[in-house]
Amino acid sequence: MKSLSCLLAGMLMAAAQAHAEPSGPQGDRSQRLLEQAGKEGELSIYTSMAEKDISRLVKAFETKYGIKTKVWRSGTDNVLQRIISEARAGRDEVDFVLSTAPEMEALHREGLLRPVDSPLQRELIPEALPEHREWTGMRVYVYVQAYNTQRIRPEDLPRSYQDLLDPKWKGKLGVESKHEWFYTLVQSMGEEQGLRFFRKMVATNGMTIRKGSTLTANLVSAGEVPLALNLYLHVVEPLLAKQAPIDYLSLSPTIASTDGIAIMRGARHPHSAELFYDFLLSDGQKILADNSISTNRRDEAVLARFKPIVFSDPVRILDSYEKWDKLFDDVAHGH
After folding, report:
1. Using CA atoms, how far apart are residues 123 and 126, in angstroms rounded to an integer?
2. Which of 122, 130, 215, 299 is the most exposed place for a label (fewest CB within 10 A)?
3. What is the pLDDT of residues 79-132, one digit of tens each?
4. Could you count the other beta carbons within 10 Å of the beta carbon of residue 241?
């Protein structure tokens, strides 16, 4: 992610200057965006957002503004790799990107994003806004501990992470392979103490590793994973609403992260992209309110249920990605 050449950086800056810069005084901003986006008439989006969610957003956006929108969706790694590959080839195929925070920070470091100045940013929690303003958090992902209600009795639930050292949890623990959660939790415990805790827990009780929050949540519902340590709240709650045998608790501290939305520096449809940006931070957050927590301050009361809450730092995660990816793998496998 840090390997692009100076030549690429120069090429990207030149491309940026060749495209209209949509940000400006806020007074006439909305009307200007509407007029210019109408002339552009289309928008290209790359995203790792769940299909059902991005489809709802795009449909509402197209209905409201009549902007033809093309979406390419894949996993976070694939989105990042495709954008960088196209940049190397000098191709401006994408206008707008929506993915997880570390990947967005990587795109910022590559010089591929442009800063955005929107009045809607003032309505967001501080954790949603990196200083450079080249990406902005739209949703908060809260990690919870999900358990199968038929295999674990309420009175047996852990009250702290230290309770997971009890041998009664042998063979019952699972984790979704997200080293960002692992890194943030270990740092909150103190690195040495946190690594010691995880190694002892795995040595005592073992821990299965699963790939994908939705898959892991379904395995909890099926009883195959009695207790999963790091599932997204928004993945668990729909199953709970369907009366599946699943529930959750939140051990202290609660770990959270954000996603990110951004406009490409070489966007061919910059005004349509900025119109979509504002749409996501207003109508879009409300559209997804049934299954996610937004970064808008109106949702601070919801986040307060999980105090103390520690947000992952995408900058530090990116800086130490290889180290902590390996550490997570080693610790989880008992090495």
Report:
1. 9
2. 122
3. 999 999 999 999 999 999 999 999 999 999 999 999 999 999 999 999 999 999
4. 10
pLDDT at 25: 43
**Confidence band of 335 (pLDDT split at 50, 70, 90):** confident
- pLDDT score for 333: 86
Residue whose C-alpha is closest to residue 261's, from 101, 78, 54: 101
Single pTM value for the model: 0.86
**pLDDT score, position 218:** 95
Cα–Cα distance for residue pair 239/43, rounded to 1 Å: 34
- The residue type of 269 is H
SS (H, E, C) the chain: CCCCCHHHHHHHHHHHHHCCCCCCCCCCHHHHHHHHHHHHCEEEEEECCCHHHHHHHHHHHHHHHCCEEEEEECCHHHHHHHHHHHHHCCCCCCCEEEEEHHHHHHHHHCCCEECCCCHHHHHECHHHCCCCCCCECCEEEEEEEEEECCCCCHHHCCCCHHHHHCHHHCCCEEEECCHHHHHHHHHHHCHHHHHHHHHHHHHHHCCEEECCHHHHHHHHHHCCCCEEEEEEHHHHHHHHHCCCCEEEECCCCEEEEEEEEEEECCCCCHHHHHHHHHHHHHHHHHHCCCCCEECEHHHHHHHHHHCCEEECCHHHHHHCHHHHHHHHHHHHCCC
Higher pLDDT: 289 or 25? It is 289
Cβ proximity of 108 and 2 under 8 Å: no
Residue 219's contacts (CB-CB under 8 Å, 6 or more residues apart) are 174, 210, 225, 228
Could you report the per-residue pLDDT of 270-289, keeping only the tens digit for each? 999 999 999 999 999 999 99
10 Å CB burial of residue 39 (0-12, 13-18, 19+) is: exposed
